Amino acid sequence: EKRTVTQIEKKGYPDSVYINAAKIFQGIRTEKNKDRNLVQYGDNSESPMMAFKDEHSRRGAYELAFNALKYQDLLEAILLDSKAYPCYSIPDELTSLLVVMLYDLQDRRFQKRKIFAEEEVVAEVQEIGHYLYRYRTKLAAALARCRIKYDALSIDYFVPETLRKQEQRASALPLWFWINTFKISLEDVIRDLEMKGFTKVESVSDFDHYTYAVDQHCQDVLVFPSSLREELLNLDLYADGKLLLQ
């Protein structure tokens, strides 16, 4: 029976992830010349990052921040075209939060985000989230106009060419995972993977989707096809810190 990659429904993140993603994005965003700088970012250097609940939250914050960086020009254009920006009730210090939450909103196809039980509610995140959702129709229309203007089948068109080439090269590379031998043995990892339908092969050249290999030089490192990235990052072995992505 042929298996397919599991499609993960995107429901958003807890408030703390957005706050941390905004803080990360603020530090890495592209600085523009004054004549091109239509979106103003204030200084939020004094606002502290919130504690990460777990590794999943940490990964979510960094992925969100770097995706906002990849599409910064597009996201800013959407805000301006939709007239969602400027908004005088939202200070410049929250612009980074506005941008990262807009990326996430369009990534969810402008659907409402899930409310996480027992999460720590952050007033700024709630405010920005409600504001963007009220503008969702205009934001979606602005995105559509950008895609029509440039005949873009997806937002990947708007990734800078140098970054697109780097991602293409990276996406073709196999994935290396360290086995956390403080928590699990190689034998137990192999047993768990085989129960999930994975097959061990001798080398990377033998990869055929649900396969893996043991690194020839390091017996506590496993190698997987790049196409399995999302599924591997949602395995219990990864969530429990038993497999660590290199």
UniProtKB/TrEMBL annotation:
One Gene Ontology biological process: methylation
Cite the entry's keywords alphabetically.
Methyltransferase, Transferase
The answer to keyword Transferase applying to this record is yes
- NOL1/NOP2/NSUN 5/7 ferredoxin-like domain residues: 176-246
Q: Which Gene3D superfamilies match?
A: Sun protein, domain 3
Q: Does the keyword Iron-sulfur apply?
A: no
Pfam families hit by this protein: NSUN5_fdxn-like
Where, by residue number, does the polypeptide cross the bilayer? none
- Its name, as the record gives it, is NSUN7 methyltransferase
InterPro entries attached here? Answer: NSUN5_7_fdxn-like (IPR049561), NSUN7 (IPR042620)
Q: Which domain of life is it from?
A: Eukaryota
Q: Which GO terms describe its molecular function?
A: methyltransferase activity
